[in-house]
Amino acid sequence: MKKLILLLLLFTTYNYSQELNCNVLVNYQNLPVNNRELLSDFKNVVMDYMNNTHFTDENWDGDKIECSLNIFFTGASSDVDYSAQIVVVSQRPIYQSTRNSPMLTINDGKWSFKYEVGQSMYANLDAFDPLTSLLDYYALIIIGFDMDTWAEFGGTPYFKKAYNIVNLASNSQNRNGWLASSSPYSRWGLVNDLLSEKYASFRSAIFDYHYGIDIFAKNKQVGQTKLVEPIDILYTIYKKEGLIKSVLVKVWFDAKYGEITDHLKDYPDKTIFTKLKKIDPSHTGRYDSAEP
């Protein structure tokens, strides 16, 4: 009931973000001069695609989601065949504030595709294309993560669409980066965790966490209590299973560890950073620096 009241309050003052305001940066330094010239329009084509494609079935009037794609070309085997690394970043506005909350910082190093000068790009979620399907996948992930912060499990429809892209890719000839993997990050692993019952309570707490972020300036005590909820849920999983091997948890902390540290550095329960170091050991140094 409390969550419903919060949603009604937010709807009267802030509309859901509608689609993307995506900045694209491209680095061609590892490519031969000829390929750099052949990719002269690539940045603008991708930016137009991300900002002009309608990725959802809704007609929302809210602010667009602020995000960016940093694309680093790593190789070219011909005039049209490329490999690249992509870094996906997004953020979400904090309610009644000029500040933003980081949502995603994903480093994906397995992208291969074809691109020709003047190539047109069209969205089709029912067919796999090595170039546009990856852009579609991350657009849906960005939107889904944003929606999870405004409504409990609000991102599920978009994560399901992203999962469908993964399934299409797994049956294609170009499966680079799309299959299940033991690597710390994989596209399959992310959507699988997002839709898994195992992490449903964690996803539910993501909504509460951002309620805490939104009210933190007005009520720090309540805000901190809400921020701790997903940490306690993950710590319970850790106590049962040991080291948490989850792409979702990795992606979450890669974006949030700084925000969490800043907001909980004076939290009364001093064991909070001990818990964080257990469930997110990759950022132990930052947690150590916040401990008294």
Description:
The protein folds into two domains: 2-195, no CATH class; 217-290. The chain has a four-stranded mixed β-sheet with strand order 1-2-3-4. Helix 8 (220-241) packs across helix 10. The relative contact order is 0.09. The model is unreliable at 1-17 (pLDDT under 50). The chain has helices at 2-13, 33-38, 42-52, 132-150, 156-170, 187-194, 200-215, 220-241, 247-264, 272-279, 284-290, and strands at 20-27, 65-76, 81-93, 100-114. It contains eleven helices and four strands, in the order αβααβββαααααααα.
Summed up, the helix count is 11
What is the element string, with H for helices and E for strands?
A: HEHHEEEHHHHHHHH
How many structural domains are formed by the residues?
Answer: 2
Given helix and strand content, the structural type is alpha+beta
Tell me the overall shape: globular
Summarize model confidence as the mean pLDDT. 92
**Largest sheet, order of strands side by side?**
1-2-3-4
**Low-confidence segments:** 1-17
Q: Please report which band the strand proportion falls in: under 5%, 5-15%, 15-25%, 25-35%, 35-45% or over 45%.
A: 15-25%
Instruction: Kindly state the percentage of residues in helix.
Output: 40-55%
Number of strands: 4
Radius of gyration: 20 Å
Distance between the termini: 38 Å
Main sheet characteristics: 4 strands, mixed
